[in-house]
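// run 5 | inverse folding | seed 20
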């Protein structure tokens, strides 16, 4: 039934004052009346909460204005569905974007409180794992900055990704308690709560007109409750909403159990519901873990779609305009079940015919693919989906029938190609391919770098691309320059402003104006001085966190990212061992002092990744304590990598390690953050490195290793990796020392299988790229010795990073996929 649209005719409240005096008065008021503390006894965490509330009040004005403006003008909204949002700390981000940093700092100073101390106390929102979640956070901020009305939808994890600690060099996973003391940024929206069902059965129902429709009768229900966080754009252009869902049991069910005396059953029901939003990425190596993961994905997808449809009907009254007013972007396959859920809502709840509903669904969804790894393209056992989501399995079968019929009518499509485009994988147990579901249910499928997009067409979606050749397009990733340059490196931002003016703050392409300064000795000296100060800050952090003393004068060689074999932290640590051997064997040479810095988390069930962390720490223990090295080489592993840690490491890096096996990294965004802060990149021609090479020029980036084509060629032939190792005495010596227990005397065989894998198959081309990598590192040393040349390259990297702004990426999404205007 059409609903009456909301009409806003209430007066618009005046914005709160932003003078030092007004902010100081409100911080005190919030401290007393909201936090409940006398200033005389207030602790730092009390001042932090009071300050956040005062800042939040000033953001609320813009938030309300943004919402009203969208309703009044009927602008198309973008909805970004992501299982991860790695937003980090919010206070500094918000203050910077609305110009409150200086008045808040002065107001607190008048109250004898240091703003920097408060910023460092704010917990990171533990809502993501790595690049995927950080990209989502950058995109939300950019959507606000370029004026796109948008919602981000995700899960309000109680613990999120685990807190990583080290025990004798091994990763230990502990609960991340970022919500332990509440979250002053969020607002609970009790009116935005939706029932989400699981299990049960499907019944055919005959309507009075004789039409037969399907009605899902779940036997399990829970409630999705919304919590909203404001996401502020640059200069307060607009404030959008991050809406996170919390799972709660539905009280009547529990009340019935309690009243019947089934107290244990009631508690189990409550725990089962709350488990859905307890932890990010439960281990899915067991059937129970797989079921919980699928429950998470459907829970947030269903709640989000119910909310989107409700809002659309509230404003427009009909569903026919859905693709014209709503754009839903699926961030990877995690929300792919949304395709089936939207079809269910349109057909079963709103009575639309199949063909019409399918047209609306495809017109509304876009899908971003982030991986070429087959194991990362999710699939679920058919039996699990049939048990947990029986109606959705029916819909998947019906969608699949249409796709296969279309493929069979396509001239030249073989039986093998038809099987490849099927939503059901029949090999080794029937499974639903979620990447295929997202693909066929979307009008746009994009990769996240030029290379990745082309490889999508040739590999994971080759046959779907032949069936729907107009759908795949490229949108190279980007980073928000506000957090990853202006906020994390204010000294460099100030220096650039003094040299080329402040216009680059609003348009990062203007950074190109810095290029003529790359050869200016005076500017080089200023640029290098800022880098050195950032390295001193990082050195202090290393001393505080892991009690290792490093020299800021050394080359800081940094690899910070999720620990995974394809990202090749192993290649980096093998080079460390080789360098260690060289320094001891040739003390007479003039060595470049180097600090190798690692950080990143390994998935709890990923044994080899956890073993690589242990190897890094074992190698660090030996090298850092060997007097023969004379401090020329240090190895550091910083635990519990998160956004706030990255904000200190990135500005202090000299060398950015982007060394993934060619053809396996979709894009990367860490490479862009380092580039913005004047680090030189050593990397393969993989992901966005290819476009970075184009932007900065071949002389300002160090590229090595096999190409994507060469990797595939070597995998396809019967080349024995052992022959490669035997041909490299340096590599053989390194592997022998690791395998024999030189770095693990307590367990000499600890790394035997890890090293043996390089002899047996070397899938990630670590051995094959080792010599080229060492040669590239020697080239890095040569550049470092010519500090004028190094500084010039560093400046050119910063000057050339403009293309990699997430503002550019979002404008391309807006123009090519979402069809929404930008500011």
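// decoded
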């Amino acid at each position: 039934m059409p609903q009456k649209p909301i009409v806003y005719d209430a007066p618009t409240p005046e914005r709160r004052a932003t003078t030092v005096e007004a902010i100081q008065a409100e911080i005190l008021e919030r401290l007393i009346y909201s936090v409940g503390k006398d200033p005389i006894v207030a602790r730092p965490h009390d001042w932090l909460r009071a300050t956040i509330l005062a800042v939040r009040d000033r953001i609320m004005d813009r938030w309300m204005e943004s919402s009203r403006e969208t309703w009044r003008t009927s602008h198309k909204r973008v909805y970004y569905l992501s299982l991860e949002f790695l937003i980090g700390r919010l206070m500094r981000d918000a203050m910077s974007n609305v110009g409150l940093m200086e008045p808040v700092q002065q107001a607190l100073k008048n109250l004898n409180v240091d703003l920097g101390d408060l910023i460092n106390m704010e917990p990171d929102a533990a809502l993501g794992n790595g690049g995927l979640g950080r990209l989502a956070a950058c995109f939300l901020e950019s959507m606000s900055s370029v004026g796109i009305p948008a919602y981000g939808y995700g899960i309000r994890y109680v613990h999120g990704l685990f807190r990583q600690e080290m025990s004798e060099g091994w990763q230990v996973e502990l609960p991340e308690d970022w919500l332990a003391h509440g979250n002053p940024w969020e607002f609970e929206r009790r009116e935005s709560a939706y029932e989400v069902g699981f299990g049960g059965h499907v019944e055919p129902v005959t309507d009075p007109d004789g039409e037969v429709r399907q009605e899902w009768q779940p036997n399990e229900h829970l409630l999705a409750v919304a919590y909203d966080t404001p996401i502020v754009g640059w200069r307060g252009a607009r404030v959008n909403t991050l809406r996170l869902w919390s799972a709660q049991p539905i009280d009547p069910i529990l009340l019935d159990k309690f009243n019947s005396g089934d107290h244990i059953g009631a508690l189990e029901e409550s725990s089962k519901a709350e488990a859905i939003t307890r932890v990010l990425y439960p281990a899915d190596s067991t059937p129970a873990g797989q079921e919980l993961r699928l429950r998470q994905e459907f829970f947030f997808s269903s709640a989000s779609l119910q909310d989107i449809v409700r809002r659309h009907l509230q404003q427009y009254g009909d569903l026919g305009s859905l693709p014209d007013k709503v754009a839903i972007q699926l961030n990877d396959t995690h929300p792919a079940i949304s395709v089936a859920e939207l079809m269910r809502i349109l057909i079963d709840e709103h009575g639309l015919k199949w063909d019409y509903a399918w047209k609306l669904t495809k017109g509304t969804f876009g899908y971003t693919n982030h991986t070429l790894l087959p194991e990362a393209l999710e699939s679920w056992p058919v039996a699990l989906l049939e048990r947990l989501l029986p109606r959705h399995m029916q819909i998947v079968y019906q969608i699949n029938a249409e796709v296969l019929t279309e493929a069979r009518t396509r001239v030249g499509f073989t039986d093998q190609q038809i099987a490849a485009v099927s939503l059901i994988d029949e090999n080794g147990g029937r499974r639903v391919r979620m990447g295929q579901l997202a693909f066929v249910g979307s009008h746009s499928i994009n990769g996240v770098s030029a290379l990745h997009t082309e490889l999508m067409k040739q590999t994971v979606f080759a046959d779907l691309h032949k069936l729907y050749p107009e759908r795949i397009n490229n949108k190279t990733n980007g980073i928000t320059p506000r957090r990853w340059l202006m906020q994390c490196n204010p000294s460099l931002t100030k220096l650039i402003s003094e040299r080329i003016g402040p216009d680059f703050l609003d348009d990062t392409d203007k950074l190109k104006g810095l290029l003529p300064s790359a050869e200016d000795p005076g500017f080089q000296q200023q640029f290098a001085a800022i880098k050195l100060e950032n390295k001193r800050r990082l050195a202090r952090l290393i001393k505080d966190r892991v009690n290792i003393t490093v020299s800021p004068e050394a080359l800081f060689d940094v690899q910070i990212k999720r620990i995974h074999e394809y990202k090749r932290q192993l290649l980096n640590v093998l080079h460390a061992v080789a360098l260690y051997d060289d320094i001891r064997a040739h003390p007479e040479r003039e060595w470049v002092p180097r600090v190798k810095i690692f950080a990143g988390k390994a998935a709890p069930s990923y044994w080899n990744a956890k073993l690589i962390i242990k190897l890094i720490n074992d190698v660090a223990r030996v090298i850092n304590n060997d007097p023969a090295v004379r401090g020329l080489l240090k190895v550091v592993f910083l635990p519990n990598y998160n956004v706030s840690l990255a904000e200190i490491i990135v500005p202090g890096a000299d060398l950015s390690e982007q060394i993934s096996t060619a053809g396996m990294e979709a894009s990367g965004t860490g490479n862009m953050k380092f580039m913005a802060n004047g680090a030189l990149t050593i990397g393969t021609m993989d992901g966005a490195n290819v476009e970075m090479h184009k932007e900065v020029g071949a002389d300002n980036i160090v590229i090595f290793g096999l190409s994507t084509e060469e990797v595939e060629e070597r995998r396809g032939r019967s080349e024995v990796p052992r022959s490669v190792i035997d041909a490299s005495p340096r590599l053989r010596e390194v592997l022998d020392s690791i395998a024999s227990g030189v770095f693990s005397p307590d367990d000499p065989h600890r790394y035997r299988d890890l090293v043996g894998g390089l002899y047996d198959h070397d899938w990630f081309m670590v051995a094959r790229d080792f010599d080229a990598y060492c040669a590239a590192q020697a080239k890095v040393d040569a550049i470092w010795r010519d500090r004028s040349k190094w500084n010039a390259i560093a400046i050119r990297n910063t000057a050339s990073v403009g293309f990699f702004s997430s503002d550019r990426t979002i404008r391309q999404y807006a123009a090519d996929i979402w069809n929404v205007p930008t500011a």
